[in-house]
Structure formats: structure tokens, C-alpha cells
Amino acid sequence: MYAADVDLTLIKGREILAPVNVKVKRTYNLSESTIRRVRELAGKYEVAKSQDAVVELAVDRIYAEMRDREEAGLWAGAAEDPEFRAEMSGIAADFGDKDAWPR
């Protein structure tokens, strides 16, 4: 099964009528402990309004974590790049004292 979760906005002329979030039913095979935890997170701990929202929240957090790791890797690589370092040194020299505000 193919699925999509698409955010749409209904527009008439220049008027925004309403944002529409199209959801698609998916089926996953999850362990009993995962199912129990999702239920507890939604019911007992009320971290989200529904079990679906708990899963969406978890995926959003994991995705953000992976994106942050990727970005950190890119910055680490840039720090080792001689051209990048030279450019940053030039910018730092243009600003002079790092504690001074531009005038």
C-alpha cells in the first residue's frame, strides 16, 4: 500500500478558506510493548490527543534528531575545510572585536 500525508490549503481567489491535512490509513506490525506504550502515552500520560498523534510526535522527534546530527556533521566537516576556515577568518576580521556591536 502506498500512502501520503499531505498538508493542503483551500484557497478561493486570494482568500484562504481552510488548511486541510489529508491523512492516509497505514498498517504496521508493532510489538505488544510498543502498542502498550503508545496507549499509555496517549491515555495515562496524555502526551498527545490520540495514539496516532503519539506516533506522529515520536516520528517528528526522531526525524529532527537525525536532521540535527546530519547538520552537526556538515558543520564538523566545514571546520576541517581550509577554504571555509579562510572565509570565516575573513568574516571574523571584518567584525573585529567579537564583543563589540556593529555601529
How big a fraction of the residues is strand? Answer: 5-15%
The neighbouring-strand order within the major sheet is 1-2
* CA radius of gyration: 23 Å
Beta strand count? 2
Q: What is the terminal separation in angstroms?
A: 60 Å
Helix content: 40-55%
Folded structure, characterized:
This protein is of the alpha+beta class and 103 residues long. It has one domain (6-94). It has three helices and two strands; from the N terminus they run ββααα. It has helices spanning 32-42, 51-79, 82-95, and strands at residues 6-12, 15-22. A two-stranded antiparallel sheet has the order 1-2. Helix 1 packs across helix 2. The mean pLDDT is 85.
Task: Give the key terms.
103 residues, alpha+beta, two-stranded antiparallel ribbon, 3 helices
Summary of the model, kept short:
About 50% of the residues lie in helices and about 15% in strands. It has about 100 residues and is of the alpha+beta class.
How would the blueprint of this fold be written?
Blueprint (H helix, E strand, L loop, with lengths): L5 E7 L2 E8 L9 H11 L8 H29 L2 H14 L8
Antiparallel strand pairs: 1-2
Helix pairs in contact: 1-2
